[in-house]
């Protein structure tokens, strides 16, 4: 069993560092270890983890199969946390992909781990249920834990609340939450969430110079992460802003960067 | 030889069977004797009676206690032609010497939630023992002063509760509020919660408070009536003035979740307070048990309404079970703006 826990922990750390392929290998080996030890609840857990990493690698079909398997085993062996997680992960995946499915209504009750409320919040946001989403994010934020995982969830919740406030046409509130997300990110170093928060701040900012500053900061992070979609979004906005500011040299520089991005790989291990 | 031995054998057997039957019958008699002694079936008894204002809370066979010991039971309850109630107690004769003239009978509760028992006080020591088939004084545990004391927390809790219900009602009925916008999801989450229930329950609670107020006017003690009326006026006054106060806060969703949490806590306090009041009321006057039941019913309805909300993750923000699971991959949430 020690082998299972070591491999699973390696996978979790690798995922936090966005080393998807390494995480996938670790989880696959952890699954074998759990199967050899005949531990169905651990199998369900690692199946969910494997589903999550495959989703990160954009292997949606494999991810879906893993979540369904994890859910089935978890339900069979009364592992309610994993069952709920897998249900939410599937619903979130369908919502992201825009697949029309019945709206999720089996919301978690009190007493679940934080990641479940975070997923529920994001799903509620997709389902246009701002009240539920807000409450679920607030629930994650009020958690007292100070582990790196808890801080990550808090940062994500602040960003979620910022997006929610933006959608509800409350820019001041959205800015406040985006700044809070940035503060949480700086505590443990969460570049992707930082980049998203900076991009959001740029969108919310009326001052063009400030906008440019936020966009440049987010672009640098997206470049370091080799996040193509993020870079494209930031560059499009930068071209727009620099043109408005009549900084044509900068605008053409960003435009050429944008052109060069075509065809580059999205996910890196 | 052989015939003689078999006769002796039969004789022996008959003797053994005879002893067996005698011993069995003896054991049976002994058991009956012990049980009758223990249950005082054949013990000498005497009757006394008293006239409570209402027969509510009494029943035939109800234990009668003296200094915590069971000394008898309620033997008979009857409604006399004049409309009075007569409750007859059947008590063990051996305790009569401990019960003196001036002894009183009252209803007490065994523990906080135990059943009500009839209790006798010893009377004036030095006076002759109680005489059989005589009336003794029934002393009500709930004096008007006691009722006033018990009513105070109930009224103040009802005030808070009404205030919170009013705030809640304004929020859920606000067409521009969060509730209306996401009513579908909210309903599913709150498991059977109906927005229309809140005003109805508020009316119910107000009606109960008004009934209690009306009853207090019938009491003779003017001071008590005055003080009670003041408390209850406050309760209804809050309802009138609450609307403008709650308009502003009705806009804010998370604030209202906190309100619901408070509401749940106040309902718990109010229920226990009103239960005490209901007990007092049922002892004070015969017409009150109906009112007591009514108030309990209303409170139960409110409890039913918020009971579903209690376990909900939307309202229960004080759960201590929540934790991080370090062995789980962080969820992939696409949050790019």
Task: Please tell me about this protein's structure.
- The complex is a heterodimer of chains A (269) and B (337).
- Chain A is mostly helical and 269 residues long.
- Chain A contains 13 helices and no strands.
- Chain A has helices at 2-16, 20-36, 40-56, 60-76, 80-97, 114-126, 130-141, 148-167, 171-188, 191-204, 208-225, 228-244, 248-260.
- In chain A, helix 6 (114-126) runs parallel beside helix 8 and helix 9 packs antiparallel against helix 10 (191-204).
- By secondary structure, chain B is of the alpha/beta class.
- Chain B is built from eight helices and eight strands.
- Chain B has helices at residues 2-39, 144-173, 178-181, 183-189, 197-218, 222-249, 253-284, 288-310; strands at residues 45-50, 63-66, 69-79, 85-92, 104-109, 116-120, 134-135, 137-138.
- Chain B has an eight-stranded mixed β-sheet, with no helix packed on it.
- In chain B, strand 3 (69-79) and strand 4 (85-92) form a beta hairpin.
- In chain B, helix 5 (197-218) packs antiparallel against helix 6.
- Chain B is flat.
- At the A-B interface, helix 1, helix 3, helix 5, helix 6 and helix 7 of A face helix 3, helix 4 and helix 7 of B.
List its salient traits.
heterodimer, A: 269 residues, mainly alpha, 13 helices, 78% helix, B: 337 residues, alpha/beta, 8-stranded mixed β-sheet, 8 helices, flat
Rg measurement of chain B, Å: 32 Å
Largest sheet: number of strands, sense, barrel closure of chain B: 8 strands, mixed
Helix segment count of chain A? Answer: 13
Number of strands of chain A: 0
Tally the helices of chain B: what do you get? 8
Order of helices and strands of chain A: HHHHHHHHHHHHH
Which percent band covers the strand fraction of chain B? Answer: 5-15%
Q: How large is the radius of gyration of chain A?
A: 20 Å
Low-confidence stretches of chain B: 178-193, 234-255
Structural class of chain A: mainly alpha
Uncertain parts of chain A: none
**Average pLDDT of chain B, to the nearest integer?**
68
Helix content of chain A: over 70%
Helix percent band of chain B:
40-55%
């Amino acid at each position: 069993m020690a082998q299972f826990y070591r491999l699973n922990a390696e996978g979790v750390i690798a995922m936090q560092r966005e080393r998807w392929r390494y995480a996938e290998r670790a989880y696959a080996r952890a699954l074998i270890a759990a199967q050899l030890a005949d531990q169905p609840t651990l199998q369900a857990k690692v199946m969910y983890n494997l589903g999550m990493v495959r989703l990160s690698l954009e292997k949606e079909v494999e991810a879906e199969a893993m979540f369904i398997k994890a859910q089935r085993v978890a339900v069979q062996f009364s592992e309610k946390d994993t069952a709920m997680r897998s249900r939410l992960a599937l619903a979130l995946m369908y919502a992201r992909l825009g697949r029309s499915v019945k709206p999720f209504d089996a919301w978690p009750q009190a007493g679940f781990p934080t990641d479940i409320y975070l997923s529920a919040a994001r799903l509620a946001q997709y389902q246009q249920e701002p009240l539920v989403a807000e409450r679920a994010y607030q629930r994650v934020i009020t958690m007292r834990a100070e582990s790196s995982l808890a801080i990550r969830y808090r940062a994500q919740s602040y960003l979620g609340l910022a997006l929610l406030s933006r959608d509800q046409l409350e820019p001041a509130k959205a800015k406040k939450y985006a700044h809070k997300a940035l503060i949480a990110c700086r505590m443990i170093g969460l570049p992707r969430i930082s980049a998203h928060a900076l991009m959001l701040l740029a969108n919310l900012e009326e001052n063009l110079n400030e906008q440019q500053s936020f966009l440049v900061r987010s672009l640098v992070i997206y470049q370091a992460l080799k996040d193509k979609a993020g870079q494209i979004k930031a560059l499009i906005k930068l071209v727009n802003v620099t043109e408005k500011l009549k900084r044509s040299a900068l605008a053409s520089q960003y435009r050429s960067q944008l052109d060069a991005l075509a065809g580059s790989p999205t996910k890196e291990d | 030889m052989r015939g003689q031995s078999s006769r002796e054998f039969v004789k022996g057997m008959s003797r053994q069977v005879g002893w067996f039957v005698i011993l069995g019958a003896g054991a049976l008699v002994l058991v009956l004797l012990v049980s009758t002694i223990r249950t005082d079936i054949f013990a000498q008894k005497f009757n006394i009676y008293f006239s409570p204002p209402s027969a509510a809370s009494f029943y035939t066979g109800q234990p009668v206690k003296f200094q915590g010991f069971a000394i008898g039971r309620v033997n008979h309850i009857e409604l006399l032609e004049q409309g009075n109630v007569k409750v007859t107690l059947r008590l063990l004769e051996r305790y009569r010497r401990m019960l003196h003239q001036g002894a009183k009978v009252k209803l007490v509760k065994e523990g906080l939630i135990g059943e009500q028992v009839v209790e006798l006080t010893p009377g004036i020591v030095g006076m002759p023992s109680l005489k059989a088939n005589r009336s003794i004084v029934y002393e009500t545990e709930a004096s008007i002063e006691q009722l006033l004391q018990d009513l105070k927390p109930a009224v103040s809790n009802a005030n808070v509760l009404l205030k919170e219900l009013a705030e809640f009602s304004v929020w859920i009925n606000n067409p521009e509020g969060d509730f209306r916008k996401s009513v579908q999801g909210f309903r599913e989450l709150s498991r059977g919660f109906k927005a229309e229930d809140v005003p109805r329950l508020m009316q119910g609670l107000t009606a109960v408070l008004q009934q209690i107020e009306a009853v207090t006017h019938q009491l003779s003690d003017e001071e008590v009536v005055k003080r009670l009326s003041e408390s209850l006026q406050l309760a209804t006054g809050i309802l009138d003035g609450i609307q403008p106060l709650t308009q502003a806060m009705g806009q804010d969703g998370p604030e209202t979740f906190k309100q619901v949490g408070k509401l749940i806590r106040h309902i718990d306090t109010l229920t226990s307070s009103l239960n005490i009041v209901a007990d007092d009321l049922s002892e004070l006057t015969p017409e009150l048990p109906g009112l007591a039941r009514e108030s309990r019913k209303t409170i139960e309805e409110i409890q039913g309404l918020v009971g579903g909300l209690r376990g909900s993750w939307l309202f229960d923000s004080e759960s201590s079970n929540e934790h991080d699971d370090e062995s789980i991959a962080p969820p992939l949430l696409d949050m790019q703006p």
